[in-house]
Specification:
Blueprint: H1 13-26, H2 31-77
Helix pairs in contact: 1-2
């Protein structure tokens, strides 16, 4: 299997202008590299969003038990002190 596969993507004129503008602004040699960078950024953003959601769900799942434990520790932390 080839490591590089040719593909053709048709973009509207406005998006081609955007690719060319980013190519110049970022001093990138090819239009393809602009698209590759955009795809990598999209993937990283998506991965980060999925990770944040996983942490949010995990936090919610243990929140009640954590509050209960903290309340218990607060009550017992002052025992025997006058």
């Amino acid at each position: 299997m080839k490591s590089n596969t040719k593909s053709s993507i048709t973009l509207p004129a406005e998006e081609i202008r955007l690719v060319r503008s980013l190519k110049a602004k970022l001093k990138i040699r090819t239009n393809v590299e602009v698209v590759r960078r955009g795809l990598r950024l999209l993937q990283a953003t998506t991965d980060r969003a999925e990770l944040q959601e996983a942490y949010r769900r995990a936090s919610k799942a243990v929140r009640t038990a954590t509050r209960k434990e903290i309340a218990e520790l607060d009550r017992s932390s002052g025992e025997g002190l006058d």
